[in-house]
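Anyone? Bumping this.
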Amino acid sequence: MNSIISALRTRFGARLSTVSDILARHGAGESYHRGMPPDVVVFAETTEEVSAIVTLCQAHRTPVIAFGAGTSLEGHVSAVNGGVCIDLTGMNRVLRISADDLDCTVEAGVTRLQLDRELRHTGMFFPLDPGADATIGGMAATRASGTNAVRYGTMRDAVLALTIVLADGQIIRTGRRARKSSAGYDLTRLFVGSEGTLGIITEVTLRLHGVPEAIAAASCTFPDVDSAVRTAVAVIQTGVPIARIELLDDAQINAVNRFSKLDLPVLDTLFFEFHGTPQSVAEQTEQVRAIAADFGGGVFRSAASQEDRTVLWQARHDAFYASTALRADSKGWSTDVCVPVGNLAQCIARTKQLLTATTVPATIVGHVGDGNFHVLFAVDTSNARELAEIAGISAALASLAIELDGTCTGEHGIGTGKIGYMVAEHGPAVEVMRLIKNAFDPAGILNPGKILPAPTQERNPH
Amino acid sequence: MNSIISALRTRFGARLSTVSDILARHGAGESYHRGMPPDVVVFAETTEEVSAIVTLCQAHRTPVIAFGAGTSLEGHVSAVNGGVCIDLTGMNRVLRISADDLDCTVEAGVTRLQLDRELRHTGMFFPLDPGADATIGGMAATRASGTNAVRYGTMRDAVLALTIVLADGQIIRTGRRARKSSAGYDLTRLFVGSEGTLGIITEVTLRLHGVPEAIAAASCTFPDVDSAVRTAVAVIQTGVPIARIELLDDAQINAVNRFSKLDLPVLDTLFFEFHGTPQSVAEQTEQVRAIAADFGGGVFRSAASQEDRTVLWQARHDAFYASTALRADSKGWSTDVCVPVGNLAQCIARTKQLLTATTVPATIVGHVGDGNFHVLFAVDTSNARELAEIAGISAALASLAIELDGTCTGEHGIGTGKIGYMVAEHGPAVEVMRLIKNAFDPAGILNPGKILPAPTQERNPH
């Protein structure tokens, strides 16, 4: 390791650190997972620099881990075997924006709020919005989404092409900017969601959307979670082109009120957003109001002004932080199951039953139009019994989702945290993923210990 | 080969053929490509049967090629090294349809028109519609799309999960039915578009959509192709949620009139379709009418009745057959470039220039909302000079599209026909695709000679 660090120092000088605080910060995300620090952090500024670092790591068979905003929830950046962390936040240039093509190309370290600002006067926007101000590279690496996915899709849909540094340092581009292509294997989609284990994403070409002529938001309270969920599912089944449909249960509303200084009624609530022409937005709002009333919805509050909408959605985006703030010195633990929408009401009802087994503060927030929801636990990471309890509930919930033909993770990724569910969810397809991993990274230097269980775990013990 | 055939005959009996007509039909698609027959065709009826055939082929290192409707345009089913063809048309069961989840699972041999019929009374529809009545498995294998892709996406977006028989006969499922997932590598998207070279698709789970409350169609003539294209691009850039926006140039209108017994004005024309509530459809129609007028559009004819719409879209779907019918005993040759929408007008203008170099009948039809269009040539395949001439124009057009940051194929796939453009389009990423191919099919038995150029072709000769 020392010879690697000294070689890197020669090239990167002050853009390299072995300071323990910096190492610790680069080995951890935002959740309960105990991070493992890398041996060194290098602050890269170009794809060629990333390539040089990876080439060096390959020569030394040393782990190499890409780092963006550090907002991962599943231990993605934990340096489980040490190694070199490449901090990409210095690669924060927006390289091109095309209003004609409705797309842009950014470096991996650009954050979503930075991109929002850059697009502000273009008439276009980038719809994906995980709660955190993640980097676009990190969002691509975890196949992230957010509240708008029900209308605009996930990073799977938003990414047109990637620039990738492969395990041998070679630089490739995975595709071109055409909206669709049948030209060979879909490398773009293969790298989206690969969590830095197949290559390092250094540039991302994104599809953008025109800012709708009109935007309106609304919220509606319900007598119970089930009524709210059934409303959401009916909205989807009716085909209303809704832009956002988010569930916050009563506990989450309480957390949000405290964290964001609001006074929302402490009831199970749906937040909605409508995009379109003024006429279409008005029509969608009425459609949803009628469906909500059918399911026992209470007060239906419109938030037509930009200011009201901003308050509403900021509160929603801060849900994770709000839940964690319910308890002093706690860390957030988020589940992330996603099921077919027709199974969502059942999945949430059974989740509520599971939650009766713990006294740890737990709130529910969900992208219910996609069948995806999170239970946010505020855990005391020093309490082993409590961690085991939440691990048990999380495991039961993941099993339930898989039983309902869903997934253990809709948008957070596997990291280290959900490896244990891979075989239950994918069966022998896990070994097909391993074939890909071994072909792309035979020495296993790229973000080791993520996504794939150790080979023995799913082998028959006989 | 004889021992394979005899082993297969033992199991499949009359569901096996070595009759030369049947072999010939199973080695060819619908286009100008000269097909190569397999040595034997087996008519499989279950995934387990496909697995047994592939296992046998693997043991004998014999090529194995999946066959659906035989409507490929790029030589995908040509048995370039002979081998076993698995005809999947007997796997034509719709396994489940869920109105609650808006999805269904079908066997690979179900055709799109069969699925349309099965969905007719469910309130749902499957939007993808290549011109031919292709099988769903074939559409997944080529990453097909059609006229609705501008609104509903391509097979990349429509497929939720696949059942795959791998090269060693193992059966896997690539994903679950949740709308989104971040659980590991996106095997579904890797197999979509892999053209039978990584595994054989035997079942497909598809996302469905609710039938819109209202549907309306319209057409508008233009003084030239450029005005029509600029109208289409403006519609996309304005964000009208249009369901279809199709260009037929004057030559294509002439072909369609003759083939479908219509009397459309022989002018460059856009066909539109609008989906939504009655109010939204009326509003979209007015938006598009206004944009078309801005670009010099002529008569804007609405086709609100189901019958008028059916005539219009049947004519559009028959475009390939109509063009081929322009010339006795000709075969169709379709180009398939796709470029960023902002580059489309330039690409089509330069294409029109390229077409001045030939007297072969040539029409243009395009999914212009996606930046994708086809030149349909009616070629005399017995005339080598003519084939060379069209090959030259096709190559120039593919190079032009790649230069404009687009692709040589938007929806038809590579097959044997477009292998020559892979390196120009993907550069060193072709070698990454080869890594995948070698990992999945080390013996090279799965549909050999497709997608990837022979290794020597892109190696530096030094």
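Late reply, but here is one note on the structure posted above: Chain A touches chain B through 97 residues (CB under 8 Å).
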